[in-house]
Amino acid sequence: MSEATVSRAFVDRDRERAADSFGMWIFLATEAMLFGAILVGYLIIRLKYHAAFAGGSHALSLPIGTVNTTILLTSSFAMAVAVETAKSGGGRIVRRALAATAALGLAFIALKGFEYWKDVEEGLLPLLGPFHYGGPDPHHAALFFNIYLMMTGIHATHLIVGIGLVAYLAAPSRLPEGRQAQRIESVGLYWHFVDIVWVILFPLLYLVQP
Amino acid sequence: MILRLARAYLLLLALLALTVASSFVPLGFGNTAINLAIAAAKAAIILVVFMKLSTNGPLVRLAMAATAFWLIILFGLSWIDLRGV
Question: Does A37 contact chain B (CB < 8 Å)?
Answer without folding.
Answer: yes
